[in-house]
Design brief:
Elements lengths: L2 E6 L9 H8 L4 H9 L3 E3 L2 E2 L11 E6 L15 E5 L3 E6 L16 H11 L7 E2 L8 E7 L2 H12 L4 E9 L6 E5 L2 E3 L7 E3 L7 E9 L3 E8 L6 H8 L22 E9 L6 E5 L4 H15 L1
Parallel strand pairs: 8-15
Antiparallel strand pairs: 1-4, 2-3, 2-4, 5-6, 6-8, 7-8, 9-14, 9-15, 10-13, 11-12, 13-14, 15-16
InterPro entries: PsdUridine_synth_cat_dom_sf, PsdUridine_synth_RluA-like_CS, PsdUridine_synth_RluC/D, PsdUridine_synth_RsuA/RluA, RluA_PseudoU_synthase
EC number: 5.4.99.-
Keywords: Isomerase, RNA-binding
Length: 301
């Protein structure tokens, strides 16, 4: 049986075309509207309707709810730490060394596989939709949408910077200035396909940072991304001369930390229904707490 979501048009939206209402007020993507039209999944006051029809106050709109038939990945039993969940989305705390989603030859053991199993146990069938990704060695907050409309809205929040991502990092050196904005483009590395580099004709990339604490030879900093380029934080920090501790590709490896010292500490967004601001935090994992303690002890000695 088909399921529908029902909306009642308010006076403030009277005069909009149905297409304008779907796109700007209900935030359905153009692709989704086309799909709904093909599926005959849009009804106004119980009747099929043209998208250019102007709507009136108290009109009742019914929109087909797409039913996902699978998860897009193979469900696999594994630990998932959920930091936040509602009917539209989840925020999950990713441990270091785990991939967000299957890629290349890796099809199992990812956060998406474990999350699919978690939802399966609740009787929920929905495609696993990560809104952003973290490198394998990076820990912390990852956002997943539960349906394609929620995915579109969250991606729009990410695009207009309503959705904010904050990271903590340990870097080599006493960073100066103590806070600044790094605004240099990033593109593919000229000789190494798996790397990125600062390139004059690369994609715009903006990272903001501020110092949280200085140690004898390292700094603990907080970073916020305005864009989401591959390896953005790592490339930008290396570019300004304060490479990420533990980063074997752009930074420096160290004996006292076995992975890159980068943690997605929080995400902030507007609730998809109420529009109330929400901030979700992921606690620092034990290895980074130990790394910070090590830096503190070095400063004291």
């Amino acid at each position: 049986m088909k399921s529908f979501t029902t909306y009642k048009v308010t006076k403030e939206h009277e005069g909009l075309t149905l297409e304008e209402y779907l796109k700007t007020i209900l935030q359905y993507s153009g692709r989704k509207i086309q799909k709904l039209t093909r599926q005959k999944g849009i009804f106004l006051n119980g009747k099929k309707v043209f998208l250019q029809r102007k709507i009136k106050s108290q009109d009742v709109l019914r929109v087909l709810i797409a039913q996902d038939m699978n998860y897009g990945v193979e469900p696999e039993d594994g630990r998932v730490e959920i930091l936040y969940e509602d009917e539209y989305m989840l925020v999950v705390n990713k441990p270091a060394y785990q991939l967000v989603h299957p890629t290349g030859q890796t099809t199992k053991g990812t956060l998406a596989n474990y999350l699919a199993h978690h939802l399966q146990q609740q009787g929920i069938i929905t495609t696993i939709r990560p809104i952003h990704r973290l490198d394998r060695e990076t820990s912390g907050c990852v956002i997943f949408a539960k349906d394609d409309r929620s995915q579109f809205i969250l991606e729009q929040q990410l695009k207009d910077r309503t959705l904010k991502r904050v990271y903590w990092a340990l870097v080599k050196g006493i960073i100066h200035p103590s806070s600044a904005t790094i605004d240099v483009p990033i593109g593919f590395h000229p000789t190494m396909a798996n790397r990125r580099a600062v390139r004059e004709k690369g994609d715009p990339a903006i990272t903001r940072y501020r110092t949280l604490q200085n140690f004898s030879e390292t700094s603990l900093i907080e970073l916020q991304l305005d864009t989401g380029r591959t390896h953005q934080i790592r490339v930008h920090l290396a570019h300004i001369g304060y490479p990420l501790i533990g980063d074997g590709m752009y930074g420096i490896r160290t004996s006292w930390l076995s992975r890159q010292a980068l943690h997605a500490s929080s995400v902030s967004f507007n609730h998809l229904k109420s529009q109330q601001p929400i901030t979700v935090q992921a606690p620092l994992p034990p290895d980074l707490i130990r790394a910070i303690d090590f830096c503190c002890s070095e400063k004291k000695s």
